[in-house]
């Protein structure tokens, strides 16, 4: 059962309201997000491009840019090595476009997800040498490529790492202390390095690449405004890589979405049309759940090169063809994912895995390209860190997704001896290991976890109780000042208690939405929408109040059902009519 908590952060709501000419309600929402000093509030409410940080503050960025400049001027061949996810594809596009703009001889490669796995490998390094490449630049990978960089240097290649992943480390078996592992690259550009003075540490890989391009344009005397159109691609990567939408990321996404809604990219226009969102205002939702997964699908089921070719396409017919291909791949990916989730859930429910605090599930038939998505879905169902493993071409491979209370990357680091390879973030990781070590990994992660039972209960933090009396069009308009919403800047959550339900309507051919007419004790009524499993709602009503009360609800007859809800207010526009409505995110019955 989910636990609800009301945030109760103290702040000078009146002072903030007066200083920034906003309501006290909005001032409280800012304070709830830890945005309390006037400078931070001003930065948050006015996310302008001139507030992006100076790229030269990032460790080795100037060094890397100077190396690239010398390679461009001396006509040396440069190869970009990217990743197969959205962030990787966008990072390649940004870096490739930027270097080409400066006159560089540059190409790119992306490892095959299934045959090669994540990141630069020895074969890519050796092939670069055979192809006469002088310099390798990684993007969205490379920080953990100790062996591969060593090989590249040994055979005479210049290597520049651009990455944003956590810095790898090992635990000293005697002292128990962390020992950071460094590559011997000619430049290592990653804001997460301990001695990096860059003020913001949570950029995605494409954003790090963008910072390098900004500096390149500067030293080639190109106008900085020429780099700004690339923010469209950086915004897509930022949203899809689920980094916090605060500080610079907030500026990037806000500006990028404006560019995306007026995109001149032939490939993106084709994809937007193919996925049915051509005449809609594209938001974080559309990028994260429609555009991003379509781009990702090529790297999962085919080759990520196809998505990059879509972005680079100059021919409408070609772009339309690739967009259709990506849409079909994503539809196929959805089906494979659904089947995989069902298999993993059945395995958990029919075994003693259900008692584990950290779920490690090995299912050889799972398509490894969707293991991470499945892990995320299973994690949401059970609210436990989840690792889904399958049989790869060279042993067991898989992906993990975590909860806020559990740093998956660090916990896997403690089990490094059981793994062949791993990398990632606190909330997500990829790994490979021998089949004999699967049960040992499961046992180790569970034996040594410090997760408590309370950690495994989902928690929702409510901004405030807000009766329906206070909801109006002006409030909803003001809430737009907090956009774009996403990780680190979630939509505000409001609560209301003891609401009566006058009537209910199941919506959609698949009954995947429920409209409720709600009223409070003052007699104020408003529509509430629940998206998801209508049958689950019906089951809960029947269990608590009886089926007769459920039928009364659907007939619009007076009933005894009362609800507490968590919601976000919105505006519904239909057939020329505009009315207020509540998007219900969670609910419980008051009886």
Q: Give the C-alpha Rg.
A: 25 Å
Low-confidence stretches: none
Mean pLDDT across the residues is: 94
Tell how many strands the DSSP assignment holds.
20
Q: How would you explain this protein's 3D organization?
A:
This protein has helices at residues 13-20, 24-32, 38-45, 61-73, 86-101, 122-130, 146-154, 205-219, 231-240, 247-260, 266-274, 284-301, 305-312, 316-349, 371-382, 408-413, 438-447, 473-479, 534-545, 547-555, and strands at 3-6, 77-81, 105-109, 135-139, 158-162, 169-171, 178-180, 187-189, 359-362, 386-392, 395-401, 421-424, 428-433, 459-462, 464-465, 494-507, 513-519, 525-531, 562-574, 577-589. The chain is α/β, with parallel strands linked by helices and 591 residues long. It has a five-stranded parallel beta sheet with strand order 3-2-4-5-8, with helices on both faces. Helix 1 (13-20) packs across helix 2 (24-32) and helix 5 (86-101) packs across helix 13. The chain is globular and about 80 Å long. The mean pLDDT is 94.
